[in-house]
Amino acid sequence: MNSVMNSILRHTARAAGARWMSSSSSEEVLKNLEQIVKKDKVVVFMKGTPAQPMCGFSNAVVQILRMHGVEKYSSYNVLENQELRQGVKTFSNWPTIPQVFFNGEFVGGCDILLQMHQSGDLVEELDKLGIRSALLDKTTPSQ
Amino acid sequence: MAITTDHIRDKLIAEIGAIHVEVEDTSANRCATSFKVIVVSPQFEGKPLLQRHRMVNTCLATELKEIHAFEQKTLTPEQWEKQKQQ
């Protein structure tokens, strides 16, 4: 089930990637980004893909989401598109990749997600999105 | 001009009133210029994490253009005291 979901998501990401190639003006890129981040509850811009992250920081975000049982999210590989790589930095006014969005709103990069994970805030934020964190169902005490 | 740990520290102290800064040059572990910082400033008080990180990013905006990877931890003096005890 999950693997089916993943392949659908990857397909979506690829289709979006193809659309990026044709967009030209930076204004258009920003408009596209606004639509993309609002399309899904959880959206991640990263280097590589969830199945094959190409950078430790991007991998950290993927692992944190996995720990919370969040599998249904869209990811966009900025290494495949320079316009997207620059565009997302301008869009969120954030200088680095990865970037995480919840409900169309910029949450932060890897450091912020990690700190939210450690403080327990991430469980709460996911709850606001209607996603029950898998960590809540674990019987073992968290670290 | 190469970016140094001292340069980053001085700038964070001068511009966002940091009372304690730890800068680690992690370039050797990565493929290009990389830094890891811990910033403690009373100016972070009452500000959400995202806003604190934005303050640091803004302070180092010129430097970040040359930096490949940048990790940060932003704490209030109170949080810093607590963390030191752990």
Automatic annotation (TrEMBL), chain A:
UniProt keyword annotation of Iron present: yes
Signal peptide per UniProt: none
InterPro entries: Glutaredoxin, GRX_PICOT-like, Monothiol_GRX-rel, Thioredoxin-like_sf
Superkingdom of the organism of origin: Eukaryota
UniProt KW keywords: 2Fe-2S, Iron, Iron-sulfur, Metal-binding, Redox-active center
Any Gene Ontology CC annotation: mitochondrial matrix
Pfam families attached to this UniProt entry: Glutaredoxin
Domain Glutaredoxin: 42-107
Gene Ontology molecular functions: 2 iron, 2 sulfur cluster binding; metal ion binding
NCBIfam families: Grx4 family monothiol glutaredoxin (TIGR00365)
Name of this protein: Glutaredoxin-related protein 5, mitochondrial
UniProtKB/TrEMBL annotation, chain B:
GO BP of this protein: intracellular iron ion homeostasis; protein maturation
Pfam families per UniProt: BolA (PF01722)
Gene3D superfamilies assigned to the protein according to its UniProt record, in alphabetical order: Phosphatidylinositol 3-kinase Catalytic Subunit, Chain A, domain 1
Family matches, as InterPro entries: BOL2 (IPR045115), BolA (IPR002634), BolA-like_sf (IPR036065)
A GO-annotated cellular component: cytosol
MF GO annotations: 2 iron, 2 sulfur cluster binding
UniProt xrefs under PANTHER family: BOLA-LIKE PROTEIN 2, BOLA-LIKE PROTEIN-RELATED
Membership in a protein family: Belongs to the BolA/IbaG family.
Record-given protein name: BolA-like protein 2
Taxon lineage: Eukaryota, Metazoa, Chordata, Craniata, Vertebrata
